[in-house]
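User: Sequence in, structure out. Go.
Assistant: Echoing your sequence, followed by the structure tokens.
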Amino acid sequence: QVQVKESGGGVVQAGGSLRLSCTTSGTIFSIDAMGWYRGGPGSRRELVAGISDGGSTNYADSVKGRFTISRDNAKNTVYLQMNSLKPEDTAVYYCCVDLPIWSSTNKSYWGQGTQVTVSS
């Protein structure tokens, strides 16, 4: 079974920084795209940042210039460096990884989430 596990969440003051990590374990032959999503009470899950297997990145407009996503394929790990945090960044952050099942067919695996709380 594939397991996705996030870490690095916590409580930080506005303007502070956190780095989230997400590691995929199990028998992994390759990983396609990886991404970070967030959601809170009464809110839908939204894409924060994504990164392709080739290293192309995309970000939600609300985090551009503040967050950076990166990956270490040797460690099956994706990171989210979060700087200049704002109270509105408070949410549970979820990691999602896309793993190939068949050619041109992937399956998404999700972590349980890690809480990020930004206080003012």
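User: And one key feature?
Assistant: Residues 40 and 91 are 5 Å apart (CA to CA).
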